[in-house]
């Protein structure tokens, strides 16, 4: 594996911060179950002996970020003192070690807070690697030899669906035409949809205003939150259908609000408004429930989308195998970071399920675009019926924010995974001592942080 020279790449510091934005004040990001999210993240910076840095994160909705921060601190032991080049030369081995420590695995394994912490660390390592190679992550992935890329993945528990040899073959099959696809990507970008119009906490007036705005910005696909009250859903979705017209595409997202039978009944009643997918209709763990919903809604032309809270590749495997998802929504800040996400793309390609990634939360649009660009260049080779979610929030806090124009993502050119925060953002929004948090707490907009949160400060 051609990895950077070892010299100076010993990891000498792993810093982690709790960074939160007060999105609940405007109802941004609100849905049927997350009624007041403060978009946040646990933000990792790793530093090497020669001063190179990698930045990574996992997304959260506010409270609880401190728990991930503690977990990342406990996991420092796997990274500190290691040489980054050695990690990259056996990345799958490193990934197995950090996810399967003989004692720590009891608090996972490969799920929940433990896996979110892994994602942040792993993402920071990929950011470092891309910076060392002076390439944006998508390009690093696209330029790797098939054997090298596949060697970063731990295939344990998924070889019944995909083996390393098959994954290598999938990449080799797509070698032809790759340069043309990369050129197309650079020239024309990748299509996206907006979720910005339909947060559940938004008024009907704002909904109309935002439909107008995003139509003018060139969007053809609109996602609306549903799942609290049927009459409200019908009214809001009918209004959106009227504003966007019959030729545009509507998706709805229930964020796990329903039982299986509620999901089926509710969606049959929304079917005349022609949503193409229902996202997270029920518990993110209920694979067979999703399969039942998919079967019941197929005659209505409604597919099931899920994955933003899927725990790991094994769950993805079963969703993909069972017909439980027609749209696979990988999330860049979940499962065990880039390495595990790559394995999901390979399974989706083999089982012919479209990947339409989840994005929107802090840094998610920035990160996931890299993965989907790589998929287009190297794995699926198509953009057909595929879209990246776009939400217009928190981009201004990054050195290298995603660029979306005319509803298309344009490929990042700067080295890394696009998750480096500006210093003033950290000064203002590190929780709870950032200057903005101190002001908002003083003004009574937010309560004093509790004991656990303070331990984090
Ligand atoms: C709490 C988040 O905002 C969630 O509603 C995001 C989501 O489901 C989506 O973007 O899809
Ligand atoms: Mg969603």
From TrEMBL:
Tell me the InterPro entries matching this sequence: Enolase_C-like, L-fuconate_dehydratase, Mandel_Rmase/mucon_lact_enz_CS, Mandelate_racemase_C, Mandelate_racemase_N_dom, RHMD-like
Give a GO molecular function annotation for the protein: L-fuconate dehydratase activity
Q: Name any cofactors this protein relies on.
A: Mg(2+)
One Gene Ontology BP term is:
carbohydrate catabolic process
- Endpoints of the signal sequence: none
Per the UniProt entry, the Enzyme Commission number(s) are 4.2.1.68
Question: Could you list the residue ranges that cross the membrane?
Answer: none
Sorted alphabetically, which keywords does the UniProt record give? Lyase, Magnesium, Metal-binding
The record places domain Mandelate racemase/muconate lactonizing enzyme C-terminal at: 204-300
Q: Which reaction does it catalyse?
A: L-fuconate = 2-dehydro-3-deoxy-L-fuconate + H2O
State the family it belongs to.
Answer: Belongs to the mandelate racemase/muconate lactonizing enzyme family. ENOSF1 subfamily.
Q: Which PANTHER family match?
A: ENOLASE SUPERFAMILY, MANDELATE RACEMASE, MITOCHONDRIAL ENOLASE SUPERFAMILY MEMBER 1
Q: What is this protein called?
A: Mitochondrial enolase superfamily member 1
Q: Please give the organism.
A: Manduca sexta (Tobacco hawkmoth)
Recite the lineage of the species: Eukaryota, Metazoa, Ecdysozoa, Arthropoda, Hexapoda
């Amino acid at each position: 594996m051609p990895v950077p020279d070892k010299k100076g790449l010993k990891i000498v510091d792993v810093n982690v911060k709790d960074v939160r934005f007060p999105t609940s004040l405007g109802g941004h990001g609100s849905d049927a179950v997350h009624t007041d999210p403060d978009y946040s993240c646990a933000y990792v910076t790793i530093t090497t002996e020669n001063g190179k840095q990698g930045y990574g994160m996992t997304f959260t909705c506010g409270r609880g970020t401190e728990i991930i921060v503690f977990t990342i601190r406990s996991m420092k032991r796997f990274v500190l003192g290691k040489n980054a080049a050695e990690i990259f030369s056996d990345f799958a081995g490193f990934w197995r070690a950090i996810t399967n420590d003989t004692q720590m695995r009891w608090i996972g394994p490969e799920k929940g807070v433990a896996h979110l912490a892994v994602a942040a660390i792993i993402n920071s390592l990929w950011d470092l690697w891309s910076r060392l190679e002076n390439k944006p992550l998508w390009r690093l992935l696209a330029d790797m030899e098939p054997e090298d890329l596949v060697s970063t993945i731990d295939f344990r528990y998924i070889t019944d669906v995909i083996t390393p040899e098959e994954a290598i073959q999938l990449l080799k099959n797509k070698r032809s035409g790759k340069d043309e696809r990369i050129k197309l990507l650079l020239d024309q970008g990748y299509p996206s949809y907006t979720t910005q119009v339909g947060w559940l906490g938004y008024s009907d007036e704002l909904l109309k205003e935002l439909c107008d705005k995003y139509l003018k910005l060139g969007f053809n696909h609109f996602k609306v939150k549903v799942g609290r009250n049927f009459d409200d859903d019908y009214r809001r979705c009918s209004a959106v259908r009227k504003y966007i017209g019959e030729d545009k595409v509507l998706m709805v997202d229930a964020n796990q609000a329903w039982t299986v039978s509620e999901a089926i009944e509710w969606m049959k009643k929304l079917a005349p408004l022609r949503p193409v997918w229902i996202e997270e209709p029920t518990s993110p763990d209920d694979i067979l429930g999703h399969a039942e919903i998919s079967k019941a809604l197929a005659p209505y032309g409604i597919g099931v989308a899920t994955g933003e809270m899927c725990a790991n590749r094994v769950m993805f495997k079963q969703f993909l195998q069972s017909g439980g998802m027609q749209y696979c929504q990988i999330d860049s800040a979940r499962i065990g970071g880039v390495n595990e996400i790559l394995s999901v793309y390979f399974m989706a390609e083999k089982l012919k399920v479209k990947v339409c990634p989840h994005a929107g939360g802090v840094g998610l649009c920035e990160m996931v675009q890299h993965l989907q660009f790589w998929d287009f260049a190297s794995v699926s080779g198509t953009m057909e019926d595929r879209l990246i979610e776009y939400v217009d929030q928190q981009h201004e806090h990054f050195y290298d924010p995603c660029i979306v124009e005319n509803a298309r993502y344009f490929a990042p050119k700067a080295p890394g995974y696009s998750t480096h925060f500006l210093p003033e953002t950290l000064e203002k929004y590190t929780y709870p001592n950032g200057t903005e948090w101190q002001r908002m707490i003083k003004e009574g907009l937010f309560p004093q942080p509790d004991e656990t949160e303070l331990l984090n400060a």
